[in-house]
Every structure is written in C-alpha cells, then in structure tokens.
Amino acid sequence: MNPAQRDSAFRLAKIVLPVGEVAQRLLPEDADALTGILQTALRHEDLDLARAAWMRRAGLSPPLPAGVGRQYLTALLRAGEGAEARRIWTTLVPDGVPSSAGALVWNGGFEADGLLGWGFDWQIRRTWGVEVTLDRFVAAEGAHSLRLTFNSFPTLDFAGVFQVVAVEPGQEYRLRARARALDFTTQSGLKLQVVVPGEEAQILAETRPISGTTPDWVPLEARVRIPPDAGLVHVRLRREKAPGPEGNLGGKVWIDDVSLTPMRGPKG
C-alpha cells in the first residue's frame, strides 16, 4: 500500500472504528505493514496507535529504519513521556555511553567519540562567539571533557549546550559536575542549570558560576526538586550577560563528570 492509500485507510478507520479499538483492529503481523502504520500514526500525531505499532514491530526482522525510531522517540519527548522515551532510547543507542549507576545524565563524562545531538545525548546550538568541542587531552576523569572557548561580547547570553533528562515528578536530585577555567575573566561565569523546558524555561536549580583561572578542577553542585507535573527537564550550561561594564569575553572552560542522581530511593 502506498503512503497516500495508507493515509486514506487510516482516516477511514479513525472515523468508523470506536476509540480504543483502532490499534487492535488495524495492526497486522507483517513487519513492513507495521512500519508503514507506525509512520502514518506519527505523521497524524496519534501516539496511542504509534505505541501499539512500535510494541508489535520492535521484535520483528528486519530492524526498523533508524529514522523511524528517531521519529517515535521525538514524539514521546514532545508528549512529555520521559520514562518511556528513555527505555526506547536505550534500544536505539545500545552501544552508547550511559551514565554511571544511579545517574540520569547520558554520557556525562563525554567519553563517546562524538555527541549525537538528539534524543537523550548532549545537544549543541551554534552560538556566535562560543566554540564547543570535545577535548581529547584535558579531562577530570577518563579521556575526554567538553571544552567551551569564548570570543564574544560581554552581553553574551548563552544556553547552547543542553541534555534532555527523564526524571521522576516530585523527586529530589543532586546535580554535580567538575569544571576548570583558563583566562575566563568575567563578572558572569558559566554555570549548570536544571530547567523545565518551554518558551520561558523554569529554572529549578543552578550551580555557582565558574570564571577566571582555576588551579585545578573544581566541583559544581546543586540540589533540585522536580515539580509534580514534570517528567522531563533540561540540564544545560548557561552564561548570562555581564551585570556591569567589562571587556570582551575570552578564555576557556572545561566541563566533565556531569551527573544528576536521586537524593533518595523512588517513591512508593
């Protein structure tokens, strides 16, 4: 069945079949047909049908095209389904670099050879005056760290490095990282924040800022309580514009060993 016919069949089934019976009556056993239904459900933003198609299709051969899995994960994240999205992520990136035991941040030590830039890995938004790259020679632990090189105006408002993290609503966590700075002279340093994403990001917690030149790696830490209605947060790097007059921004900052760990066991 071509995509146009599949869309027509989908719309007709949605009209004729009662809610709740659509997935059960539409789903075949054939892998290709299930892939088509999953793609159609995602295109129509029908997450219930997409979930049912995914569950039936996941164990069949050949494997789903990588792009389809990514689309499904994106739909889950858009719907705020953090726990389910995290489970799907580990099937899509089985050879990735997970966080340490009990921690929620993926690739918090930046030990992967590169950053995927989607899903639950680190994402980088290009910003004029800030070069972000993996450093393969400087690390607090392991072989890599994340290096930010600044060459910008003091008015720089930067939040261009972040990771989506699935959390438990109402839970309290500890955010930790290690940082190092060289010639990063400013009144407004670089810090880590935990925010609820949105048009106006709700800042839940932030570490102290790092600036200047540090003799070695220094710890950054903050405690955060997740709101009862939040299942996803962003852990992000933030540099706000300087509060007073100062010269152009220069220098480097390294970040390593980022983690977000529960302060206590899961509720219930």
Concise synopsis of the structure shown:
With 268 residues, this protein is α+β, with helices and mostly antiparallel strands.
Task: Explain the overall architecture.
It is a single chain. By secondary structure, the chain is α+β, with helices and mostly antiparallel strands. It has 2 domains: 3-92, Serine Threonine Protein Phosphatase 5, Tetratricopeptide repeat; 123-262, Jelly Rolls. It is built from 6 helices and 10 strands, in the order H-H-H-H-H-H-E-E-E-E-E-E-E-E-E-E. It has helices at residues 3-16, 22-26, 31-43, 47-57, 66-78, 82-92, and strands spanning 123-124, 130-135, 145-152, 158-166, 172-182, 191-196, 202-206, 218-225, 232-239, 249-262. A 5-stranded antiparallel beta sheet has the order 1-4-9-6-7. Strands 2-3-10-5-8 form a 5-stranded antiparallel beta sheet, with no helix packed on it. Helix 3 runs antiparallel to helix 4 (47-57), helix 3 runs parallel beside helix 5 and helix 5 (66-78) runs antiparallel to helix 6 (82-92). The termini are far apart. The mean pLDDT is 88.
List keywords for this structure.
single chain; five-stranded antiparallel beta sheet; 2 domains; elongated; alpha+beta; Jelly Rolls; Serine Threonine Protein Phosphatase 5, Tetratricopeptide repeat; 10 strands; 268 residues; 25% helix
